[in-house]
Every structure is written in structure tokens, then in C-alpha cells.
Amino acid sequence: MFSTLQLTIAAIAAWLTIGVLSMVPVRDASRIIRPLFIAGAGVGLLLAVVAFTALGEVAQSTVLPLGLPDLPFHLRLDSLSAFFLLLLGATTAGISIFSAGYFRVSEGSAPGLLCFQYHAFLAAMALVLIADDAYVFMVAWETMALASYFLVTTDHNIAEIRRAGFLYLLIAHIGAIAILLCFGVLQGGSGDYTFGSMRSVTLPGAWGSIAFLLALFGFGAKAGLLPLHIWLPEAHPAAPSPVSALMSGVMLKTAIYGLLRVTFDLLNTQLWWWGVVALVLGLFSALFGVIFATVQTDMKRLLAYSSIENIGIIVAGIGLSILFKSYDKTLLAALTLTATLYHALNHAFFKSLLFLATGAVLHATKERSLGKLGGLIHRMPWVAWLALVGTLAMAGLPPLNGFVSEWLLLQAFLFTPSLPQSFVNMLVPLAAAALVLAVALAAYVMVKFYGVVFLGRPREPNLAYAKDPGRLERAALVWFALGCVVLGLFPVNVIALIDPVDAMLVGSTVGGRGGSWMLLAPVNADRSSYSPIIFLAVITAVVILTIQVVHRYYHGHIRKGPAWDCGFPLQTPRMQDTAEGFGQPIRQVFEPFFRIERTLPSPFDVKPQYKVALEDHFWHWLYLPVAHSAEAMARLIGRIQQGRISIYLTYSFCTLLALLFFVR
After folding, report:
1. Which of 139, 175, 630, 662 has the highest Cβ tally under 10 A?
2. pLDDT for res 37
């Protein structure tokens, strides 16, 4: 009875309605917040179902009588929008369930206001994904930025959180200006800002390249690409954990959606060097993010830097897709785009799982520092074992979902044929090596994260009182863990889900080349194939066999005795490997990536301390000079404000004379 586009609009309206209901004044707002968050999760799940049915259907369009008189809201649902709506709905369902238990007590903002901001954020992201003109896109984009700013600054009584929110909002608006200029170029002087008109415009000369670079800059600012990444490791630790999960898992993907929409849909042609720029920028962001993640001592900052790494991998995949598309190698373009979209979906699941797990740890221990955690697998077994699934998925280990998308992307690099540009032929193997290095370092980061937080012995006495979260939080963690398993075990089905998007953007699909439900063969089974089902069966058989052998031949035949002394009785939890010690080898190998400030003790210090601070070079190379220049300019302009009416009348008189002189 209703089209999928109408149902999508209804879901957006439902989220807004939930937000408005949360603002109704009641005596105990916390009692209605939990049901409203659960209702929001139900809307997200229904949206995912609607988006799933819309994949592969004919695009649907409508015009809503909203906005300005001559600028109504043009909305459109196609396969690209449907895929990201599916990602949004599935991720939101789990995060909202977790939030229903997590936000049982206000964390700075009133519970009703927090619920309103949260659901306004969801509605704005969904509206971005179905916008079909520049006006409604920018309205939704800025609403999304504003709502997320208030969510980041939930605990606004802390000065550091206010600074992080301001930095995030500043970078978001700089990116929005670039996106607005991009739409101005895309309309090609026609004055029509609908996306349908932009698709029919052929931009002359270098204007197409200008539009692409503006899109890369604007959407890259929201996605966290270098050098506009600086807000991300500040905003994620400041925000509540469910908000961090929503921003990393979904909001960053809206930027990926925008880049794909402009590059492959609104622009008629793609140039090979666009792909090279995106490929280099993406891989450099991936390496930069994962290297900084290895040396972090804060749980959420570590995950924030790893988000930069994963977004870099996704943008590198987009760059390789542009490269193949520009040379009319549509099958390889489809394979690369499949890997890119697959990784976007995977990242939404395993990163949301890990952020929510850190939120559970933070609520239970009141600690975010890795140096004050440890041994939580005994106190929080639900969180520990479910977080292990996300950790292994993010580390790219089979048979979980992170391995599949990274393996597919590596296959796209390895299958790269001889391209006309010799420079590109030399670049692609180096890019493949950089991708492998980033993936390997990501596994290193995950070993550090999980080992320091959950294994070993507790480093602080108060960890003895930690316990698992409630049923709602556990249900959300199970949801994302199951998603990581299902996406890893059935890659052929996921590829079939992505095929309509490939057909729309690059004109080809992986299709039947993806193999059968049991065997994934992206191009040719003779060249490469992977079977997650067989891999899982082998792992299970080896584990069961090992347990049986140990139980049969060693159980009951080993005597336990006291350990050899040699200092054993004097061991304390402080003797365990710390987060700083774990990251020290990487810090030494990649020392040029960091701006290191060391505080060395004096021989005469009563309490000598040795301190090492690692900072981002971009703060000192780019942002601080810009800030100092802006302050100097403000002081210079401030000199004209003398506070005397005669001076201001003189300014007005001189301005009038100048206008009369030039206009005559």
C-alpha cells in the first residue's frame, strides 16, 4: 500500500516524533526515556527492512511541500541510498537498545533533551541519505552536525569537552562550506540545484575536477581524512559511548555516501588522477590513524584513531574504483566498490560493538585509561567475550567480517592489470603493501586493546567491584557480535546485496563471479577463493580435537606445585605489560610520525619523573599557525573600534565618498 520511499519518510517522522515526546514535561523523565529509546530501536529495525526491500528496485522520487516557497524538498530513494539506510537502520537498532539501558542517569544534559538530540540526529542522517537536491541536503547535513555537536557536549560542564565540541563544529562547518561550493559548481550555471539536473550537466574544462576536489575536501572533513582528522580523536572521547558508536559507525559513513554520490552519480566522467589522489590520501590516513592508535593509553582515543584508519581504507577503495572506472575496467571497479561498501558495513558493526563495550567498561569502572584497567574478563565476562568478537573482526581475522572486506580489497589490488599510466603501475603495488601494513598494525592495536583491558590481573583495587551491564546493554552487544559473525560467514549473500549499488555507480556487478554460498571467488576460483564455512569447520574441529587430547592424555596426570621462587611472591599487577610499553616498539619505529616531548628528571629531584608526550604534527604545522594568524588579524581589525562616534562617522563619510567616486 505504501512505497519504500514513503515508509522511509515515515521512519524519519517517527524518530522526530519520539524526540518531541521526550521533551514532554513529566515528574520523572527517566521512566519514559527507556521506552522511547526502545521505540527508536524498533524504528531503526523497520527502516533496515524497508531499505533491504528497496535494494535493486527502480528509484523512487517525491517532492514534499516543505522548505521555502520556491525550494521544496526533493527526495529520492535508489540503491545507493537504500544500502546506507540499511546500514543506518541496522546499526541504530543495536545502539538505541544499548542507550535505553546506558542513559538511565543523565550525564550532563537533561534526559529528555538528550533523547531529543539523539533522535533528531538519526532523522537528519536518514534525510541526508534520501535528499535529491542541494537545499534539503545542506539543511539535513547542518542539522546532523548541530545535533551531533550537542550530543558530543552532553557533559558540557567539563571545559575539555566544550573545547572538543567547538573544534568538531568548526571543522564540520569548514567541510560544509566546501560541499556547498561543490554543489554550486555541479549546477553548472543552470540555477537548478536538484540532483536530477546536476546529472544532466556536463561541466566544461577543469570544473569537474574542482567539483571532485571540493567534495573530497568537504566530505573528507566529516569522515576524518587527513589533514582534517584533528576533531575525531577529541570528539569521540568527549561524547557518551553510544554517541561515539553512532558517530563512528554511521555518521562517518554519511560522508562516504556523499563522496560516492558526487563522484559516481552527479559527475558524468571520472579522471584517473582523481583516483590516485583519493588512493594516496586514503592510505596515508589509514597508516597515520593506525600508527597513532598503537601508542594511545585511552580506550576511546585508541578506537577513534582506528576509525581514521578504517575510513582511510574505505577512501582508498573509492580511489581504486575511480581509477578502474576511468579506464573502463568496470568489473574490477565493481569488485573494488564491493569491497569498499562491504568494509563500510563491517566497520559499522565491529566499531559500534567495541565502542559500546568500552561504554560498559567505563560505566562499571569509571576508568578510561588503559593503565588503570585489566583482568575484567573475570568481572565482566559478557562484555569480555562479546568484545573479543569485535576485536578479532577488527583485527581482520577469519572467519569474521573484517577479514572478508579487507581480503576482497587486497584481491582488487592484486588483480590490477597493466594500466596505461606507468606511474599508476608503480603506485598500485606500493599501495597494496601499505594496505597490508595498515591491516597488520590494526591487529597489533587490537591485541593491545583487548589484552590490557580484559586480560591479566586488575591494576586498581576498585576493579573488584566491576560487573556486567544490564540485559538491554548485553542484548545490544549480542546484536553486533552476531552481525560480525553473519557478515563474515555469508559473504556471497552480502555481495549480492551490494550488486545493485555497483550496477548503478559503475555499470557492472560481481554477480555470479562471487561464487556459491559456500565458496567466495571474486573473479575466478582458479586464482583465489575463500570459504568461511570450511574455515570455521576446520577451526572448530581443531579446537575440539585439542580439548579431547588434553582431557584424555593430560587431565589428572599433572601435579600442581608451588612455583619456583625467584621473586614470584613479590609480583604485583603493576609488573604487567602496560599500554605504553606495548606501544613502545611502534613508537620507536615510526618516530617521525609523532611530535615527541620528553620530560627528563634531574639527578637532584626528590621524586624523579620521566614523561613522554606524543602530539600530532598537524596541530603545529597547520592548525596553530592558522589560529595565531586569525588572532593577529582580529587584533588588527579591532583597532578600528575606537568607541568614538566621530571616528565611526568619519568611516561612513569616507565610504560614501569612495562609492560616489567608483559609481559615477
Report:
1. 175
2. 92
